[in-house]
Prior knowledge:
This protein is an all-alpha fold. It has one domain. Helix content is 73%, strand content 0%. The longest helix has 29 residues, at 209-237.
Amino acid sequence: MPETPPPDPLDGPRFAFGTLTVIPVRVHRWDRTAARAGMLCAPLTGLAVGLAAAALGVLLLLLGAGPLLAAVASAAVPAALTRGLHLDGLADTADGLGSGKPAEQALAIMKRSDIGPFGVLTLVLTLLAQAAALAGLYGESWARGALGAVVSGAAARLALTLAARTGVPAARPEGLGAAVAGVVPVPGALAVGAAVTLAAGAGGALLGPWEAVRAAAAVPLCLVPAELLLRRCVSRFGGVTGDVFGALAETAATAALLVLCLGGTAPPAG
Length: 270
């Protein structure tokens, strides 16, 4: 048998970037220890994806494109950097949940290569919501749009960290869901969540106190619908799958953008 390579501090980031993005990173370890470190590092991949999305959106604004085109480009970057896997997971999960079939049959529906009506409708509405939210943010300022792209990217992957916590089972014995299900200790997941929330608030603080509060609030608030979806999937399918992880990421990203759009500009002083 081939020898298992010794532990490396970069095993976690390698696992995260190698499995959650198309960035060419070689994964040296594929075991529960590496999976645990990788899922704890998942928000780092979201930060990288979000920064890329923000960079393209701001570049288009500087070149004279309007907020809508910048928003569409920012929404497209995460899809490109994940080969559309999260969007595909969202569509498959919608088809599985909407099928009304028993768990085993619903999981079989999710494994098919085609997309059903529930998946198509969910994809269209989700992408429209993301583009509309980003357009509103870019319309107010390039900085708010960029902040939205980055915060939503990190928050989306934080949802994956929390979904991989201890106590959440896998629906299948194979696949990415089985590889990462239950690997993250709950205290570790909560610590990462607190770190992402503080980082979002710090980023928002660059634009003012009101933006700091809104950016920090967007992280825990976007996790509420993601957690509700997770519980529904566990109840419906018996656990999580790779598709469910994708659906959770898109749900959290969309919810974070919607929260960042609420409240308008900073309230007047006094």
